[in-house]
Amino acid sequence: MSLFGFVLVMVSLVLGLGVTHLLQGISLVVRHRRTMKVDWVPLTWAATLFLLVASNWWALWDFRDLHWSFPAFFFVMVEPAVLYLAMTLLLPVDAAEQNPESFEAVRLPFMSLLILFQIMTSWDGWLLGTEAFWNPLRWVQAVLIAIFGLSAASPRRGVQKVTAIAALLLVVFGTFVLRFLPGAF
Predict the structure, then answer these.
(1) DSSP class of 61
(2) Alpha-carbon gap, residue 127 to 61, rounded angstroms
(3) What pLDDT score was predicted for residue 103?
(4) Distance between terminal CA atoms of the chain?
(5) How far apart are alpha carbons 172 and 179 in whole angstroms?
(6) Considering all CA atoms of the chain, what is the largest pairwise distance in Å, rounded to the nearest integer?
(7) What is the pLDDT of residues 54-113, one digit of tens each?
């Protein structure tokens, strides 16, 4: 096994645990949809997180030729750990924890984690020496940080609806149009 494969195993485990938590939360919502009030805003954020996990894992391929050191591994390992924490805050996996105000109760720490994650993933390639300081995806990443910040700053329901949809659309655009087209970077 290569050193890259060794590093990728641990990162993949953490990302997989996060996806498992997301799917458990969605399963809970589906299972109890008649007895609990379903809020589509956290479900929209769950879809965004799912795409962020997939694109983060796929983007790790950019590090395949990196000269790995423990600090580089630790930095790359913190990214999925932050994303995992955000996923565990977003959707409860116990019906007793679910209530209409549950998203509002975790909105600020959830968005703070997304801001941290986005800052880290925006500049990890540059910090580790695998990509240029600026590329076509940077403006999308900067706008995502602004959207997460706006959602963190405003408790208004209308702002939460708009930011959830805007983030999902921007992640879809950034992932499928800018990042993973052949020869994108």
Answers:
(1) G
(2) 16
(3) 87
(4) 27
(5) 10
(6) 53
(7) 999 988 888 999 999 999 999 999 999 999 999 999 987 776 666 657 889 899 999 999
H-assigned helices in the chain = 3-31, 40-59, 70-90, 102-128, 138-153, 157-173
Q: What are phi and psi for residue 5, nearest 5 degrees?
A: -60, -40
Can you tell me which residue has the tokens 């109890």?
32
Q: Tell me the CB-side half-sphere exposure of residue 62, using CA atoms within 13 A.
A: 23
Angstrom distance (rounded) from CA 87 to CA 21 = 7
Counting residues of the chain whose pLDDT is more than 70, the rounded percentage is: 93
* pLDDT the model gives residue 121: 93
Report the C-alpha gap between 174 and 181 in whole angstroms. Answer: 10
Measured distance CA(1)–CA(142) in Å, rounded: 36
The whole-model pTM stands at: 0.90
Rounded to the nearest 10 degrees, the angle between the axes of helix 40-59 and helix 3-31 is: 170
CB atoms inside a 10 Å sphere around CB 129: 10
